[in-house]
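Tutorial, part two.
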Amino acid sequence: MTNNNCKDKIETDIIGWFDEVAEDSAVIQRQTLRRILEMNHGVEYLKNLIGDIKIEEIDENLLESIYASLVPLASHADIEPFTKRTADGDTTPLLTQQPITNLSLSSGTTEGRQKFVPFTHHSSQTTLQIFKLAAAYRSRIYPIRRGGRILEFIYSSKQCKTKGGIIVGTATTHYYASDEFKIKQQQTKSFTCSPQEVISCGDYKQSTYCHLLLDLYFSREVEFVTSAFAYSIVEAFRSFEEMWKELCHDIREGSLSSRINIDNVQKSVSGITQPNPELASRIESICVEQERADWFNIIPKLWPNAKYVYSIMTGSMMPYLTKLRHYAGELPLVSADYGSTEINVDPSNPPEKVTFAVVPTFSYFEFIPLYKHKSNYNYQNGNINSTNDDYIEGNLVSLCQVKSGQQYEIVLTTFTGLYRYRLGDVVEVDGFYKKTPKLNFICRRNLILTINIDKNTEKDLQLVAERGSRILSKGTRRAELVDFTSHANVTKQPGHYVIYWEIKGEVDEKLLDECCRDMDASFVDHGYVVSRRTKSIGPLELCIVERGTFKKILESYIGNGAALSQFKTPRCTSNKELLNILNVCTIKRFYSTAYG
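Running the prediction step on this input gives:
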């Protein structure tokens, strides 16, 4: 059997397996819950809740209802005491029977602080399995050459040890250091252009330079372009715009820039590169031409055999799609899967229309139905009162009970120590693949702009910023929105929204006034509109920050242990360190006149 035939058989087998479990998702989910509880029977967290009940003797249909009645919904605050004990060296099975050798750090971009999450061998295995399944679906539509290269902007953060000897780092750092990452490359015969020393050096600027340098050396071999988040790809090519001449010099001379000062990175990259004047001249010629075209279509120009760009492009990554499409030109954008629980079964769909089919074997799923308030306000003696909840919650349903068109918050029970854990992700069911739901990610819960009765979500803010940026593009001078965030300022009464913009290019102040006014008028939440009209919320403030401000925010997070590969710009923040950066870097302020 040839290599290609063997590869085709592997892909057919894994898709066939998923078809089977998706068709029988209700039964598979009950079996998955049983497996999780049997595997982790006796751990302290569960024992405190369900005692010594004999899981194996309980009927699967009954087990679901018993589990739901005995184990309450959980947030990170519920598991934090257990992860802290693990970090301090407690080897008792607290959350999982499988040894916790690593603890993953969340990025901290959502709530302003990082959290510990258990990471076990099962975590790496699941990540590998989801990768193979996703790759099989992509290969059906965009087949790649076996033995080709992957242009992969991947970054590890520095790992450290807790006083109990547990290794702490981001989930991506643990995965890139795992055997499963090496297995993935060996089984697919597709290798990243950069060696481990570049991935794990801990300095994202040096990593990015070396990624670009080696990606250019292997330019004819690259089959697709990828990174965990669309943001990382956009940032890498923004850096490329500034560094291409230096990269061409290093390729022509076989040298390495003085900006690379980590010994093992220098040695590993120098061992791969050699003088190549012909390649340098080709790249230089392309860049001179593309610079005049504002770098449109640069990816397929430099990597002519690339088939697509692959990354997480939904949710908070949506604002980067315009710039990513600009760089990618005619190359398809394929949206990657969040975490290790859902899969993109139709990679040909654009990111705006992508859905993710739930893999019913990886975790046990429950869903909280979410309903928007028909009215967030009422009048009592002339005053406006409001509830604090962003949604009205319905009764939990199982995976096989969800309905198309309904929004839900996901509740997960995993093999790695999370039990009825509220993810905080708002999703909408958009049909089914066989009998497993296809989900569309909407936004994070509780990431909202609110002052009194107003409630605007991350999605609402994205739509408003998108509308404002369209006005920005009307200007006679070439300008674009680089990034944005927001803050509900209640230090003075009445409180008001503040939106921070970083802009590339020159913009007339009259146009920025128009952007500010139009964004204020574009918030359609009824509580906001009423509050603006009654002046209980003040005019929206648009702050223009100097170039490089959002890189300072990135560096602030990386300085606190996050990795570039998991960074997401917070769309709404009350973090004092971030607000200090934003306010210090503000160079212009505009106030809306939308409501007179």
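Residues 143-331 form one domain. In part three we will examine how such features are distributed along the chain.
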